[in-house]
């Protein structure tokens, strides 16, 4: 891989699976916690189901999801897991423990919530957390012990932009990536702080994908008729940022 940091995350998550534990990437928003888990599942041919957790989830709905994961062998990635109420987490801890204990014992069937269900050994449970944000719950110690944690840091957006541009068929990707990152950095610092404006990594990635689509539309045109790559990015920025 070109970016080395996800390798360490992959090692942590696969080690957790080998030890019959869950994986727990944690860090600020936009650091790739969920995307890294999804990408690992894709590389291993695993179906990954992402669940956005909230205060409204109760232990019954969580139990149904865990039962489905155990019986199908899919992976579950529970985003913002520490938003769930502490009362629910205490029951969820017992549900997860029963699945992990059955995996450790290499059982093909086990008792879950009073029912005898089958267990597919490829199932996995992952949680992501944003520590320090308002409305987040501290996980109980018995729940923490079931997951192998890894801290995620803010990625190198310039390098990510360069790789995406290269994959979309642009030339001179290093210079274009630096320009796009500078544009978004200045926009974040100097433009409106309203919530509906997003100048983070997700918005930057959307812009590059949009510019890549425009680049492919012009693929059959002669070189002298293709708009300059910088203009494609500027038009894409206006299109994505302007009010709909």
Automatic annotation (TrEMBL):
Gene3D superfamilies: 1.10.8.710, P-loop containing nucleotide triphosphate hydrolases. InterPro entries: AAA_6, DHC, Dynein_AAA1S, P-loop_NTPase. Residues 6-225 form the Dynein heavy chain hydrolytic ATP-binding dynein motor region domain. Pfam families: AAA_6. GO terms for biological process: microtubule-based movement. Keywords: ATP-binding, Cell projection, Cilium, Coiled coil, Cytoplasm, Cytoskeleton, Dynein, Microtubule, Motor protein, Nucleotide-binding. It comes from the Eukaryota. Belongs to the dynein heavy chain family. This is Dynein heavy chain hydrolytic ATP-binding dynein motor region domain-containing protein. It comes from Periophthalmus magnuspinnatus.
């Amino acid at each position: 891989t070109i970016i080395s940091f996800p390798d360490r995350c992959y090692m942590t998550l696969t080690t957790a699976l080998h030890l019959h534990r869950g994986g727990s990437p944690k860090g600020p928003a936009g650091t790739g916690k969920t995307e890294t888990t999804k990408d690992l599942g894709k590389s291993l041919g695993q179906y990954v189901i992402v669940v956005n957790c909230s205060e409204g989830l109760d232990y019954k709905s969580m139990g149904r999801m865990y039962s489905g994961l155990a019986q199908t062998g899919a992976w579950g990635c529970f985003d913002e897991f520490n938003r769930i109420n502490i009362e629910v987490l205490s029951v969820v801890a017992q549900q997860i423990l029963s699945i992990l204990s059955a995996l450790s014992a290499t059982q093909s069937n086990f008792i879950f919530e009073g029912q005898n269900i089958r267990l597919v050994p490829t199932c996995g449970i992952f949680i992501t957390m944003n520590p320090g944000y308002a409305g987040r719950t501290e996980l109980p110690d018995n729940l923490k012990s079931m997951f192998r944690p890894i801290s995620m840091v803010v990625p190198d957006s310039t390098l990510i932009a360069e790789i995406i541009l290269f994959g979309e068929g642009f030339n001179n990707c290093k210079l274009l990536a630096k320009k796009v990152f500078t544009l978004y950095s200045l926009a974040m610092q100097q433009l409106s702080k309203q919530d509906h404006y997003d100048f983070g990594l997700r918005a930057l990635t959307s812009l590059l994908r949009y510019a890549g689509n425009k680049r492919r539309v012009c693929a059959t045109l002669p070189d002298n008729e293709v708009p300059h790559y910088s203009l494609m990015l500027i038009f894409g920025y206006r299109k994505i940022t302007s009010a709909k």
